[in-house]
Design brief:
Elements (H helix, E strand, L loop, with lengths): L1 H16 L3 E6 L5 E4 L1 H7 L3 H4 L8 E2 L5 H10 L4 E9 L5 E13 L4 E10 L1 H15 L9 H16 L6 E8 L2 H8 L1 H18 L5 E6 L2 E6 L4 H16 L2 E6 L2 E6 L2 E8 L6 H17 L4 E4 L2 H24 L4 E9 L5 E9 L10 H10 L3 H17 L8 E4 L10 H12 L6 E6 H6 L1 H12 L4 E7 L5 H4 L7 E4 L11 H16 L3 E4 L5 H10 L3 E2 L8 E2 L13
Parallel strand pairs: 12-13, 15-16, 16-17, 17-18, 18-19, 19-20, 20-21
Antiparallel strand pairs: 1-2, 1-6, 3-4, 4-5, 5-6, 7-9, 7-12, 8-9, 10-11, 14-15, 14-21, 14-22
Length: 566
């Protein structure tokens, strides 16, 4: 009896003092007997006006079975009842709450009472909706991303096959000399231009057209037509709309205006491919043909001439890859990754550099693409791993720890683990000194095999960083399965950190998730001190970007402080 009274006192205290949870008691008929202080505040009503009121009357669109289920709970024939319903507030506002109802017998008579607890999940649902939006949109421009673009293309393709459409066209746009704009004005100028391009395309195209930013300065458009007159008109309007944009940059004491031009490649379904991927590849070929005939131009895919051009280009890049695998010199530049708290360099990301023979460097991504498409990426990754281990083991460089990018295709290399073991042994690489960076796409392509290979490499002392973290958001689910030590927060969330409160909230959430799994966080694309200070406040562990150091040859210098193990 004493225990029952104590329980009643404890529950009464909970009923009154719980600060962020609605707690109320209903009788067997679903009428309110008591509502805690927080619940009364949410309802905007005093206790006298809530007492004896039907619980369901407080809700916006309650479940049709709610009254019946509450009656079963009160009768003891149902253990509990759960549902999500919005609570009406004064002025018509609502808050979404998650409700839980269970039976409680109070007093000596043991009268049946239903205890109801409501937890506000409005912010959680908003965040989930935003994360869902980010999964299919580019956060910088608000346009669809590549994944959603491909999904829409496949949907259009199925509509044609079902006879619901006669066909459609795919346009691929690439900004001319975008790299010059980035190099002269910085990434913030480039980002602003991409936003302006997105706005111009939205204004110029019809609502039925699908527009996406596919990556970098590349945009894709699906046109609901195969008529050449409309395709030609749309391409010319896009060229003119973007040509009206200009980027102003200071040089010396004056200003220079950089024109914005675009090259457009066009393919049509079903004439130029039977899949959306084939259409995109052929539009890419046509786009490079447009670049070759002059800026601010468009070109329709022509299978014969452009097919030969594509073969020549592929042979050019594949030959460079073969030369690298055969032993042609390659260079690894290192970009420092800095401890946000101490300001000390912890390690470097190793970046592949290959001479073009004229004092410059070949585009690394072209080499990687050619190696992957030509089935040579595994051998190229092995060469990069050898070079990284040599640098780590050399006393002539400060690279005591290097992070090396590893292609997802290399996880299917049966010799990878042994190759890494031999390279580390040959160059005297200490455990923990070699970090492999993998993208979410690479990790999830064949996750079971990926985890198996990662565990085998971890047994050799290697560590792993999950690159582009936060973009796909499916990585949040797989973190508990992937044996990674670091997560690298994608630069699209970092560049506009000062003026984008949503990105700050998301980074805070990503940091909290990483800490829950005992992982270290690295922020990419840090370009000024203000962003670095914000990252420190948000709890990010490490940072990387031009503000902290550009990629450069690794030379003799003070030894960096190695990062702690996870």
């Amino acid at each position: 009896m004493a225990r029952r009274l104590a329980d009643q006192e404890d529950f009464s205290r909970l009923l009154q003092d719980t600060a962020d949870i609605v707690v109320l008691i209903q009788d067997a008929q679903g009428r309110l007997l008591s509502v805690n202080r927080y619940g009364r505040w949410l309802c905007g009503l005093p206790a006298t006006r809530l007492r004896r009121r039907a619980f369901a009357s407080l809700l916006e669109d309650p479940p049709a079975t709610l009254v019946t289920e509450l009656a079963r709970v009160a009768a003891g024939t149902q253990h509990a009842c759960r549902h999500e319903s919005a609570l009406r507030r004064p002025g018509g506002d609502t808050l979404l709450l998650s409700w839980w109802h269970t039976l409680w017998r109070s007093g000596a008579g043991g009268k049946s009472r239903v205890v109801s607890i409501g937890l506000d999940i409005s912010d959680q649902r908003i965040a989930e909706a935003h994360i869902g939006w980010l999964a299919s949109h580019d956060p910088l421009t608000g346009l669809f991303n590549r994944r959603r673009f491909l999904e829409e293309g496949r949907r259009w393709q199925q509509a044609v096959l079902a006879g619901e459409r006669t066909g459609f066209a795919l346009m691929l746009l690439d900004l001319d000399q975008f790299r010059d704009i980035n190099d002269l004005g910085g990434h913030h100028h480039g980002d602003r231009l991409l936003q302006q391009v997105a706005q111009a395309l939205r204004a110029d195209l019809r609502q039925s057209d699908v527009i996406a930013r596919l990556g970098g300065d590349e945009f894709g458009i699906l046109l609901d037509t195969t008529r050449m007159s409309r395709i030609r008109d749309t391409a010319e309007r896009c060229c003119n709309a973007l040509a009206s944009l200009t980027v102003t940059h200071s040089i010396g004491r004056g200003l220079t205006r950089l024109p914005v031009t675009t090259s457009i490649g066009i393919s049509r379904f079903p004439q130029h491919g039977d899949t959306i991927e084939a259409l995109l590849a052929n539009a890419d070929i046509a786009m490079y043909q447009a670049k070759s005939i002059g800026r601010n131009a468009w070109c329709l895919f022509d299978g014969d001439d452009l097919h030969r051009a594509r073969i020549h280009e592929r042979v050019f890049w594949e030959q460079h890859v073969r030369d690298l695998i055969a032993g042609e010199p390659l260079t690894l530049h290192g970009q420092p990754i800095v401890n946000v708290t101490t300001g000390k360099t912890s390690h470097h990301e190793a970046l592949l550099r290959v001479s073009d023979g004229h004092g410059g460097w070949l585009p690394t991504q072209n080499l990687i693409n050619a190696a992957e498409q030509g089935g040579m990426i595994q051998q190229l990754d092995e060469r990069v791993i050898d070079q990284a281990c040599r640098l780590i083991g050399s006393s002539a460089t400060p690279a005591s720890t290097l992070a090396v990018n590893l292609s997802g295709l290399s996880f299917h290399n049966p010799d990878l683990v042994e190759h890494v073991r031999q390279a580390m042994l040959r160059h005297g690489v200490a455990p923990g000194a070699l970090i492999f960076e993998i993208t979410e796409t690479a990790a999830l392509t064949d996750i079971d095999n990926t985890v198996k290979v990662m565990e085998a490499l971890r047994a050799q002392g290697c560590r792993f960083a999950l690159d582009d973290f936060g973009v796909g958001f499916s990585s949040l689910y797989y973190l508990k399965k992937l044996p990674v030590d670091f997560v690298k927060i994608d630069g699209s969330f970092i560049r506009h950190l000062e003026d984008n409160a949503e990105h700050r909230v998301l980074i805070r959430a990503l940091v909290d998730v990483a800490r829950a799994f005992r992982l270290l966080t690295v922020a990419e694309c840090v370009e000024d001190a203000a962003v670095l200070a914000m990252l420190a406040e948000l709890g990010v562990d490490y940072a990387q970007g031009y503000h902290l150091g550009r990629p450069a040859p690794l030379r003799r210098g003070p030894a960096p402080t190695p990062p702690p193990t996870g």
